[in-house]
Specification:
The chain is of the alpha+beta class. The chain contains 9 helices and 12 strands. Helices cover 31% and strands 22% of the residues.
């Protein structure tokens, strides 16, 4: 596939909790493509998105949306119906990967280590804990650590959790309850069929939540992570295997917790992000840069992969998982 020039519609924004991140990702992608001589149409997703995509008549859509409905299969299904070529994962993969419980059902039978736990009705939390403390509560289908709460024995949520205590139970009717895994936060990017590096994330305070992810200076990124070689290799192997099992396309990012007192037995995959951020603080561009892949080349590589699928007989351009 030649490197253009292409006409790329960059789809960003939307109305999820991750809108600001998506706008930052999309603008970075747009500027990178323009710097390489490509034509770019910026589309801030609204309810007229189908008409605006049709009017753009672009060669390919760069999906820079995060969260619902840009990452959960909704926008992918719409673009499939329109016959559009787009970056990143397709409908089936997106539906599964954004749902943490469906992801477990897809990956656990293949030996991918993931935390236990189950989905609970938020209302039940005000009567009894679903798991022994400490445990984690998180929305089933949000990204970027939106709405994550760690419930501890000495925390201020109450015992049982108080109805008026601030937490995700106020915003989501159901939550995923998982055992809390002590230790370290690791993440591995996958580009195409290659796992890149392992980054350790060290928040300056608290845990790696939405603010820690996207506020400059709140989290230290150690890349490559200062971890034993066998842990690094395991992260990369699990990230690539999960990417392949889920049918991810383009770039993905696998997030881990590692209990460093337990060695390999303490490594758990938490989730796979099919639309990883492309902001200046994002982890995929950072890992790529460490391997000598500059930001603009990374963007072009993701676009090329989508265009290559569209041009290959027997394959769709939509990246179905």
């Amino acid at each position: 596939m030649t490197r253009g020039p292409w006409h790329v519609a960059v789809l960003m924004g939307g109305w999820s909790a991750e809108r600001p991140v998506s706008l930052s990702s999309g603008e970075g992608v747009a500027k990178a493509l323009e710097s390489r001589g490509h034509k770019v149409t910026r589309i801030d997703m609204d309810r007229e998105v189908a008409r605006r995509l049709a009017d753009a008549q672009a060669d390919v859509v760069f999906n820079a949306l995060h969260g619902v409905p840009g990452e959960d299969g909704t926008i992918q299904g719409m673009m499939d119906l329109m016959g559009l070529t787009y970056t990143h994962s397709g409908l089936a993969t997106s539906v599964i990967a954004i749902d943490k419980q469906l992801t477990k059902q897809a990956l656990l039978p293949h030996g991918i280590p993931m935390p236990g736990g189950h989905v609970v009705d938020s209302e039940s939390l005000f009567t009894a804990d679903p798991l022994p403390r400490p445990y984690v509560l998180k929305p089933v289908n949000e990204g970027s650590s939106v709405g994550v709460a760690i419930v501890t024995a000495k925390g201020n949520h109450g015992d049982p959790i108080a109805r008026d205590s601030i937490g995700p139970w106020q915003d989501f009717p159901q939550l995923l309850a998982e055992p809390y895994i002590r230790g370290r936060e690791l993440t591995t990017a996958v580009l195409g069929d290659e796992a890149l590096l392992v980054t350790e994330l060290r928040p300056k305070s608290g845990f790696y939540d939405f603010d820690a992810k996207y506020t400059d200076g709140m989290t230290e990124h150690v890349c490559p992570a200062d971890i034993p070689p066998e842990i690094s290799e395991a992260c990369k192997a699990i990230a690539l295997r999960a990417h392949q099992l889920l049918g991810c396309r383009g770039a993905s990012r696998a997030d881990f917790r590692w209990d460093d007192e337990r060695g390999l037995d303490g490594l758990y995959l938490l989730e796979v992000n099919t639309q990883p951020g492309m902001t200046p603080l994002s982890l995929v561009p950072e890992q790529a840069a460490k391997l000598g892949i500059d930001y603009a080349t990374l963007v072009e590589t993701i676009v090329e992969e989508a265009l290559g699928r569209a041009a290959t007989p027997g394959k769709t351009g939509q990246g179905h998982g």
